Amino acid sequence: MKHLGFLLFLGGLTVASWYASKVVPVPEGEPAGPVERLVVWGKDAGGLFGVGLAAMVVGGLLARRARHASAAVAKKAGEGKHEEDGVGVLGLLDHIDEKLAPMEAGALPEGAQALADTLDELLTDTVPDFLDHREELIEKLGLETFAELIGQFASMERGAARAWSAITDEAWGEVGPSLDKAKSSLAAARDIARAKLEA
Amino acid sequence: MASAPAAAEAAPKPYREVTFGAVFLGVIQGAIMTAAFVYIGLRLGFGLPGSTVAAILGFALLRGVGRNALGIEGAGSIVENNINQTIASGINTASAGVVFTFPALLLLGEDFDVGTIILSAIAGSFMGIVVIIPLRKQMIEIERLKFPSGVAVATILKSPGAGAAKAIRLGIGFVIAVGITLLTKFEVVPETLTIGAWFLDDPEQASGGLGILALGTSLSLSMANLGAGLLSGKGGLPFALGGALAWWVIAPFVVGQGWLPAGPDGALPSGEALWGAVYGAMLRPVGIGVLIGGALSGVVLSFPALKGAIKSLRAAAKLAKQGDAASADELPPKVLLFGLAGAFLALFGVAIVGSDGAISMAISVAVAGTIWLALAGLIVAQATGATDISPLSGLALIAVTLMLALTANNVVLAITIGVAVCVATNQCADMMSDLKTGHLIGAVPRRQQLVQFGVAWIGPAIAVGTVLLLWSGGEGGANGFGPGTSLPAPQAGALQGMVEGVVSGDAPLDKYVSGAAIGGSLALFPISGLGVLVGLAMYLPFEITLGYGIGCVVSMGLEKKKGRRFYGDYLVPIAAGFIVGEALTSLTLTMIELAGG
Fold first, then answer.
1. B444 interaction partners in chain A (CB closer than 8 Å)
2. Do A60 and B441 touch (CB under 8 A)?
3. Residues of B with CB below 8 A from A16's CB?
4. Is residue B360 situated within a structural domain?
């Protein structure tokens, strides 16, 4: 169904674009305003343009349906074990928490370079790993809850990035509060996910 | 890093972010760049990016002079310099919006009120920032768009702590871009490789489907373009494929069928005229329609996400009220409501003045203007987020066309509203890019937005003033720019031509409507932002899309083969170097050229 949807969509897009691009001149002697151009074009090219558009709509809906269906299968197959084996929403957030929780500003400035490296790794590797599951998370949580969760998650990212910047600028007093903010935002993201999953 | 014992003994110092120095330097840089970029825009017809220049000068002045010469402890921090570049680019972004629209009024010889134009431009500047409030969450946090220029500026800002290896890679990218840009500017190598034309005996006589296939296949040697593709990777691929669809599938078929507008002699065009007809009369107007339809249906489909974004803005505002400083990152949603109401009132005021008190017309202009502005902001944010390219001119043309229709061809009012829309959309693109930079370095979005609010009036006032000053430089205190002068004002000339075309009934409504239907349907396919990306690909010449697409494919291949770490450690600094190197070289060469007359 996915491939059929894609083919229909692509074929429809091609045909619709062909006929959309067609320049149909207004017959001489008739008024040539914008509305008249639209009417003349519609009479000449509108039919096949509509066929292309319909194929796009059907193809697009089929592709969406196929995606929902495969997500549902994956969800069913993973029910009951995802959260335990650490690949569910909470598992992914726990994985980030494992990296973030030990980070402390107390040892600064001695451990500054090591902390900056760990923050860099978190932001460059771990965060994108989480974001790779974006579509899966939307399927699982719904778009509205995902938007709320990702707002807190982004706040965590900003906190971690600010801690990194503060270390680079040797503003040691800023590092602790920034790390605290990152941790509390991550906790808030986990709360949002947990509330939704338990509902 | 600091020497440990010395730093350990020092008391914690406040982290410098919004400071007098950052604001002052940002305003000065922004004001100078606005005047300079207005001049460049009137002379050459394009705008220039200001963020990179501001960020680099910020390091030299805030960090170098402030910290070392003036002894201000902690001066020139990463987040402080970010505020400086946010302000500077926020001010100078008005130059492109004003230069594209306002000079057309002067060229058309219309009577207008300067105060109303400035009010309209300032209203647009504020509205651009307001529209961004929910879009920031949607585009940066939820959709995770790349905003390549924002990433490039963040890479510069982070360079003091990113390590020598990344700095070297940034430098390598920079040097390569400077080299290629110099080679193209001095015509050692062409700016565009006309790849398809290499296979033609006589490109000027090329015709038919194969002819347009060859003529349309070209590659821009822009390193910034390649860099944007490298940073975008997989997310930018639909844009590249949209270009291939437009120039390798649609154009050959329609030309093969003979569906072209005939020339004055009744014959079908060939060579460059063929390319111009396919692009100007077919792909570009359909592309504008696809952009609009894609953005509109994107709003409908992402409504739950927008609802979630507003909900989290509300929650953050509530926590901030309760004293949770960590949640004070966001501007509250009521700013959005007040801002939109203010936008409506400002446009209403402009429309009342422009329509000699016709209240019903003023209301319809204000409503349509506000809605279009929000939609154009969304389109620009999505387009720059995914590709770093802003379809500013197309959106301004639509705004003026729409206003001409609503005002029964009141040219002055239509262009005055067009000024607001153009300034606002450019402000959206700039603010979004700055916020992406801020996200990557840990800046507080609320602070960035507030400083931009504080200076949003400066750029429009300077830009309008500079245009008037240059206009009055001609004989008898007028005609200082336009055809036949040293400042040809090409963009305003294009708008002038379009206005004259619309007034005489020449708007391609069929292309806009059919394109919008395609854009709406594209949104049904489960790829976020597909309508805007394909629309943008149809709107642009293939030379840009192809270069960008090569960057996307190379990025995907390298990331797959070498892993994610390679993307962050190698591709990001090199691509940032490409973008910054080309921008600075182009700016420097332009300044030298202008200084030499």
1. 158
2. no
3. 514, 517-518, 521
4. yes
Query: To which H or E segment does residue B216 belong?
Result: helix B208-216
Q: Measured in Å, how far apart are chain B's first and last C-alpha atoms?
A: 47
Cα separation, B438 vs B443, in Å, equals: 5
Q: Residue A106 carries which DSSP code?
A: T
Collect all residues of chain A within an 8 Å Cβ-Cβ radius of residue B510.
24, 37-38, 40-42
A residues 77-96 near B, CB within 8 Å? Answer: none
**Chain A contact for B311, CB < 8 A?**
yes
Q: State the smallest CA–CA distance between residue B267 and chain A in angstroms.
A: 14
> How does DSSP assign A54-101, residue by residue?
HHHHHHHHHHHHHHHHHHHHHHHHHTTTHHHHT-SHHHHHHHHHHHHT
In terms of domains, do A45 and A137 share one? no
B456-494 confidence digits (pLDDT tens):
999 999 999 999 999 988 888 888 888 888 788 878 887
pLDDT reported for residue A85: 43
Position A27 scores a pLDDT of: 85
Rounded distance between C-alpha atoms, residue B529 and residue B535, angstroms: 10
- Contact criterion met (CB < 8 Å) for A64 and B526: yes
Domain range enclosing B193: 15-261+270-456+482-595
Measured between CA atoms, the residue of chain B closest to residue A8 is B525
For residues B185, B190, B191 and B195, what is the CA-based torsion angle, rounded to 10 degrees?
Answer: 180
Write the residue in B2, B517, B565 that is nearest to A125 by C-beta. B565
DSSP B495-543: HHHHHHHHHTT---HHHHHHHHHHHHHHTTSSSTTHHHHHHHHHHS-HH
Render pLDDT for B133-172 as a digit per residue (tens, 0 to 9): 888 888 898 888 889 999 999 998 998 877 778 788 889 9
Q: What domain count does chain A have?
A: 2
Asked if B125 and B91 count as a contact pair (C-beta separation under 8 A), the reply is: no
Task: Name every chain A residue with its beta carbon within 8 A of the beta carbon of B161.
Answer: 116, 164-165, 167-169
Statement to judge: residues A120 and A169 lie in one domain = yes
Highest mean pLDDT among A24-33, B483-492, B537-546: B537-546
Q: Rounded to whole angstroms, how far apart are CA atoms B361 and B540?
A: 34
Inter-chain residue contact B444 with A53, CB threshold 8 Å = no
Q: Per the structure, how many domains does chain B have?
A: 1
Whether residue A144 is found in the same domain as residue A86: yes
Residues A60 and A7 in one domain: yes
Residue B526 lies in a domain: yes
B83-101 pLDDT per residue, tens: 999 999 999 999 989 998 9
**Which range marks the domain in which residue A17 is found?**
2-78
Nearest Cα residue to B411 out of B107, B105, B123, B106: B105
In the prediction, which pLDDT does A72 show? 66
- Of A78, A103, A127, the position where a domain reaches its end is A78
Same domain assignment for residues A108 and A15: no
